[in-house]
Amino acid sequence: MDTRASAFAVELGVLAAELGPCCVLWLLLIAG
Amino acid sequence: MSERQRLVVVGNGMAGVKTLEHLLALAPERHAITVFGAEPHPNYNRILLSPVLAGELTTADIVLNGLDWYSAHGITLHLGKRAVRVDRVRRVVVADDGTEAPYDRLLIATGSTPVVLPVPGNALPGVLTYRDLADTGAMIRAAAQFRCAVVIGGGLLGLEAANGLRARGMDVTVVHLMPWLMERQLDETAAGMLRAALEARGIAFRLGAETEAVLPGLQSRVGAVRLKDGSELAADLVVMAVGIRPNVELARTAGLYCGRGIVVNDTMQTYDPRIYAVGECVAHRGVAYGLVAPLYEMANVCATHLAGFGIGRYQGSIPSTKLKVTGIDLFSAGDFLGGGTSEPIVLHDAETGVYRKVVVKDGRLIGAVLYGDTEGSAWLLDRMTERRDLSTIRDALLFGPDIAAMLAPPADAPAAAPAARMVA
Predict the structure, then answer these.
(1) CB of A2 within 8 Å of any CB in chain B?
(2) Residues 6+ apart with CB under 8 A from B203
(3) With CB atoms 3.0 to 4.6 Å apart as the test, which of B10, B290, B398, B422 could cross-link to B83 if both were Cys?
């Protein structure tokens, strides 16, 4: 069953595939 | 080869393959293309299933792109394989047999599924929908064995099915919920003329009738249809043609935003920029289209973007349709009912069976229904699409491009010229 959290995880994964995981981590840290 | 982008197309129907045709014309070397098709056939013209059912065409006649077309363009074709999952993180499409195809760009063209009425008995043997070659084949086989057919739904598809089954010798009754046939395409007058023409061919109608249940007959096969008023219609074959539902499951499980269909922007791009969608599975500006002309417009726009030109926007279509029943000429487009401040202009010749109606609002043509004589229908559709003030040729709209060209002042002449050529 899909949930908002898993949907968010998919989008993060897609973003990581596009930009690289380090970039996404950095974005998350900035946002946090 | 390695520099080519990998394009995967899910759906081997008219919209998806039309996009490929445009794309191959624009940028033949840009992509390494893989196509998944759930049906075991190469791309065929779904619109011509009705003539196949009526026995006027064969299956071979309606194939649009044979297997040689795919191989000639280097397309990897997976027939009979249904794509069941899109892994957007790995950028891979997975089919039901485990086949995987990685993509750089993905085009979803999964089409739609016929709606099955939620009534008891809807899964009995002999209850069919009307969507693909398999359905058509099943109807042809049933027509050879059985006598009575009930078609539920008096829309475009239902009437074409009824006509085809009648042409194959079955006793056909059409059950329709609304008070007149094809209410989404015709006004009451034109629908009445259509009904009379089809009754003359031996098709019976139950209008304003709601199906309550499909009843079993001998050997667990369908035997009758019971209506809400308690009456029963004998049926060895039941065809449900009560609408379609966009196939969005694949996109939805991949996390793409879906409304009524897969939501796309004016460039046919979904919420994932690597993924495009065209055809009946799409919701564009909140509208899901089920007719071929809008799908081809979408395909054209999508192809220009896949080709990297970045031009062309799809801005919606005016729905227009023709009934594909031999001997009955019928055309409908736009807002044919009018109402409010719109002005209907009508020509009705009951003797010759001709009915022509155009609807004008604020000087612009917004809708048309032509029955019995569809001359000039393409010209009318063009005038509707360009949304121009046609006050100067208002009196001639009913009579088509020739008369309009005579009435038009010089400034309007170019608009009338192409249609005049078409008639000539």
Answers:
(1) yes
(2) B162, B163, B166, B172, B173, B174
(3) B10
Q: Which residues of B touch A2 (CB under 8 A)?
A: 253, 255
What B290-295 contacts at long range (C-beta under 8 Å, 24+ apart), as own/partner pairs, is B290/B112, B290/B244, B291/B319, B291/B320, B291/B321, B292/B14, B292/B47, B293/B317, B293/B320, B294/B319, B295/B14, B295/B15, B295/B18
Residue B339 has what pLDDT? 79
Cα–Cα nearest to B139, from B110, B167, B118, B175: B167
The C-alpha of B104 sits at a distance from chain A's nearest C-alpha, in angstroms, of 11
Computed over every residue of chain B, the mean pLDDT equals 91
Nearest CA in chain B to A20: B89
Q: How far is CA B148 from CA B172, B198, B237, in A?
A: 6, 17, 7
Residue B337 has pLDDT above 50, yes or no: yes
Tens-digit pLDDT profile for residues B107-158: 999 999 999 999 999 999 999 999 999 999 999 999 999 999 999 999 999 9
| Residues B247/B111, Cβ–Cβ less than 8 Å | yes
Q: CA of B166: how far to CAs of B155, B182, B198, B204, B342, in Å?
A: 16, 18, 10, 10, 39
Contact B281, B115 (CB under 8 A): no
Q: Partners of B101 in the beta sheet?
A: B93
**pTM exceeds cut of 0.90:** no
Q: In this predicted complex, what is the ipTM?
A: 0.76
Q: Is B368 exposed, middle or buried (0-12, 13-18, 19+ CB in 10 A)?
A: buried
CA distance B50 to B144: 17
